[in-house]
């Protein structure tokens, strides 16, 4: 089914001169314009601290897009020229009233608006309060007024609850679009289809057949110039309660009774609320952390994390984390979910690995299949090389009864001509048409923070430093110990990429 064009809307971007706007939001809207999903009735009103007029913002974006065009020649084309004319700008302090009066004037009455908060999190609550105080979130005239909020949404359970309370005192949940950019990724959206459109997969999807689940999001990039943000955040906060838990929710949720946004969000929230909340003692044995040391990475000498610009030399912040979690539900009872994420590692690899139970293999007694058969595995590669791979055992050719593991591989790129996208296209499109499926609801966010809070608490009180690991490695030894204790192994990082010759 083709997607319908969006209704007329003004996208009001707070933080219009920032990196997110030029790198992701504007290129995504150009792509939507190109595919005719947004038309001439989309306006952009940029708000920033720097003084300037409409031409100021247009010029800034021009400059940035020219720079991008080196790699991607289609970025600046008629779609951009047409959008460019519909971009305006006004400057002011987000905490003062003047700017909100000005926004009101610019929008005029009866205009649909989506307010996008591409600003530091300390402004989220205040901006929503000011929007409401100036009547800008009022939908009583039949228009829509939505607020899109970037991550990080809170820094722990208490702050996430406080922020939700502050926002929901002003607007309805149906007006709030909390972003997690992982949900904009094509393969993440495919997780639900893979499960619920395939009897072969879904009928095995429970603790009778699944031994354990691994969810991985590793990166080669180091902390780089983000030292200030990262040292106050760490790998756990940065990646787990949001991105990794969104993947976990898609994998572990019960089938929704419809593809309606609320039905899906209900199921996702339910499973996140079922994540076991560890006691401090349990948290100590179910989570490990590391920080990269100095060493060669991608042909350059990387300084140790603690020697990174804007990072405290005695920082205890982790750049790698691995957890063993349980979703206490009928379906998943006893099935561990191992999660890991980190920076400066050997491969960029976001994947989900489902390892099935071993077969009873009684019929192979008296044959050469005398060692344990490798378990079946389903590997869902989210990025960078989207696809799926199913590892099964077959008989090896010849007269003897012996087996070999083989893999049935599917790569998106082999089958589809996937246009280069930013990952924000579907999120912005859904924001404009009012579909909240790919956005996080207040209860889901809080459930995620509740599950990681025990780790935050024990590490806050722990004076030891995270274990060091070598840049370009698979992570610290303590991560291997975490899983090997259970006689299991991590799936090798980047293995599908290597197989595909990348
Ligand atoms: C962001 C984190 O939310 O996600 C970054 O703050 C991380 O630290 C990024 O690098 C990963 O996203 P992606 O889409 O590059 O996998």
From TrEMBL:
Entry keyword annotation includes NADP: yes
EC number: 1.1.1.49
Annotated positions binding substrate: 181, 185, 219, 238, 343
Transmembrane segments: none
InterPro entries: G6P_DH, G6P_DH_AS, G6P_DH_C, G6P_DH_NAD-bd, NAD(P)-bd_dom_sf
Reactions this protein catalyses: D-glucose 6-phosphate + NADP(+) = 6-phospho-D-glucono-1,5-lactone + NADPH + H(+)
Keyword Lipoprotein assigned: no
Keyword tags: Carbohydrate metabolism, Glucose metabolism, NADP, Oxidoreductase
Pathway(s) where this gene product acts: Carbohydrate degradation; pentose phosphate pathway; D-ribulose 5-phosphate from D-glucose 6-phosphate (oxidative stage): step 1/3
Occurrences of domain Glucose-6-phosphate dehydrogenase NAD-binding (ranges): 12-190
Enzyme type, top EC level: oxidoreductase
Origin: domain of life: Bacteria
UniProt xrefs under PROSITE patterns: G6P_DEHYDROGENASE
GO molecular function: glucose-6-phosphate dehydrogenase activity; NADP binding
Gene Ontology CC terms, in alphabetical order: cytosol
Pfam families hit by this protein: G6PD_C, G6PD_N
SUPFAM superfamilies according to UniProt: Glyceraldehyde-3-phosphate dehydrogenase-like, C-terminal domain (SSF55347), NAD(P)-binding Rossmann-fold domains (SSF51735)
Residues forming the catalytic site: 243
One biological process term in Gene Ontology: pentose-phosphate shunt, oxidative branch
Glucose-6-phosphate dehydrogenase C-terminal domain boundaries: 192-491
Positions annotated to bind NADP(+): 15-22, 93-94, 151
NCBIfam families the record matches: PRK12853.1-3, zwf
Family: Belongs to the glucose-6-phosphate dehydrogenase family.
Role according to the record: Catalyzes the oxidation of glucose 6-phosphate to 6-phosphogluconolactone.
Name listed for the protein in its UniProt record: Glucose-6-phosphate 1-dehydrogenase
Organism this protein belongs to: Rhizobium johnstonii (strain DSM 114642 / LMG 32736 / 3841)
Taxonomy of the source species: Bacteria, Pseudomonadati, Pseudomonadota, Alphaproteobacteria, Hyphomicrobiales
């Amino acid at each position: 089914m083709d997607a319908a064009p969006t209704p007329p809307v003004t996208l009001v971007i707070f933080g219009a001169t920032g990196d997110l706007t030029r790198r992701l939001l504007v290129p995504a809207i150009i792509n939507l314009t190109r595919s005719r999903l947004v038309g001439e009735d989309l306006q952009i009103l940029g708000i920033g601290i720097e003084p300037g007029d409409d031409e100021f913002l247009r010029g800034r974006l021009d400059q940035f897009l020219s720079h991008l065009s080196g790699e991607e020649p289609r970025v600046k084309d008629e779609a951009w020229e047409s959008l460019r004319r519909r971009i305006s700008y006004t400057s002011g302090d987000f905490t003062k009233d003047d700017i909100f009066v000005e926004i009101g004037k610019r929008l005029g009455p009866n205009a649909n608006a989506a307010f996008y908060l591409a600003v530091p999190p300390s402004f989220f609550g205040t901006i929503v309060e000011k929007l409401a105080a100036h009547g800008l979130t009022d939908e009583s005239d039949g228009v829509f007024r939505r607020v899109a909020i970037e991550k990080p949404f809170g820094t722990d359970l208490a702050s996430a609850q406080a922020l939700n309370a502050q926002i929901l005192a002003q607007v309805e949940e149906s007006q709030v679009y909390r972003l997690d950019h992982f949900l904009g990724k094509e393969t993440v959206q495919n997780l639900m289809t893979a499960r619920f459109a395939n009897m072969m997969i879904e009928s095995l999807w429970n603790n009778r057949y699944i031994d354990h689940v691994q969810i991985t999001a590793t990166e080669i990039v180091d902390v780089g110039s983000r030292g200030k943000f990262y040292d106050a955040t760490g790998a756990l906060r940065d990646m787990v309660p949001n991105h990794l838990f969104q993947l976990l929710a898609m994998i572990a949720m019960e089938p929704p009774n419809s593809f309606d946004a609320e039905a899906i969000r209900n199921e996702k929230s339910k499973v996140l609320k079922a994540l076991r909340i560890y006691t401090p003692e349990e948290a100590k044995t179910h989570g490990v952390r590391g920080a990269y040391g100095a060493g060669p990475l991608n042909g350059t000498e990387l300084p140790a994390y603690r020697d990174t610009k804007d990072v405290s030399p005695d920082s205890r912040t982790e750049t790698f984390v691995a957890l063993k979690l349980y979703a206490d539900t009928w379906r998943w009872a006893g099935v561990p979910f191992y999660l890991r994420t980190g920076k400066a590692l050997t491969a960029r690899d976001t994947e989900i690995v489902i390892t099935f139970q071993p077969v009873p293999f009684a019929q192979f007694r008296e044959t050469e299949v005398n060692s344990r058969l490798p378990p079946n595995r389903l590997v869902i590669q989210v990025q960078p090389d989207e696809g799926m791979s199913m590892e099964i055992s077959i008989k090896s050719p010849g007269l003897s009864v012996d087996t070999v593991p083989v893999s049935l591989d599917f790569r998106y790129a082999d089958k589809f001509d996937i246009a280069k996208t930013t990952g924000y296209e579907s999120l912005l499109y859904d924001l404009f048409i009012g579909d909240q499926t790919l956005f996080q609801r207040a209860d889901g966010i809080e459930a995620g923070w509740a599950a990681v809070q025990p780790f935050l608490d024990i590490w806050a009180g722990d004076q030891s430093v995270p274990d060091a690991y070598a840049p370009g490695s698979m992570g610290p030894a303590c991560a291997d110990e975490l899983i090997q204790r259970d006689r299991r192994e991590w799936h090798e990082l980047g293995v599908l990429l290597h197989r595909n010759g990348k």
